[in-house]
Request: fold
Amino acid sequence: MTIVAIDGPAGAGKSTVARAVADALGFRYLDSGAMYRAVALAALERASEPAAIADSIELEMGPRVLLDGLDVTEAIRAPSVSEAASRAAADPAVRRALVVRQRRLLGDGDWVAEGRDVGTVVAPDAEVKVFLTADPAERARRRASELGAEHAMVLAEQTIRDQRDRTRQHSPLEPAPRAVVVDTTTLTLEQVVRRIVELVKGRE
Ligand code: C5P
Reply:
């Protein structure tokens, strides 16, 4: 059983990289951010506090994200949900509930798990830990082209979310002990994936 933890800020390329590494290794892939997004979406829809529902909603995390049986894969990517997820993720009760669920999933099989606190909190014993990062302007450029949005606006929102992720009291975003920091600013996707696959193979 091997866990590869890939943490880092928004726009560093985590999702694309983590999926590609999981494919290359034949591991399963867990997007922990999608869980925070699904809780935030459920809370918005029900006009309730994320902490009040984080335990009770039904989540299925696969190629599609199912919330109480409904496919919310696209809905959780809306900008309003990004903002709500970042706020929900600052609530320790929400984090506790989701960390329990994440650990349960990761307890069985080989995984590439992506997030902000996988290497620090969710799976501190992960065999391989990577902290993926890139220049803020480059991260915003990538997200802007992905979303078809304006660079300056994406950069402004990203700065607020980065600040919230880094300074929150519970599980602030930071490289885990033993994490290999990979700066993707000038690397291609293939180069990043190769680097991480080599890290995994290197310890087998
Ligand atoms: O990575 P993604 O943008 O989908 O994550 C949504 C939000 O969930 C982020 O703003 C971050 O604050 C939060 N998050 C977190 N811990 C994780 C994954 C995501 O706090 N492990």
User: Anything to note?
Assistant: The chain is about 50% helix and 15% strand. The mean pLDDT is 94. The first helix runs from residue 14 to 25.
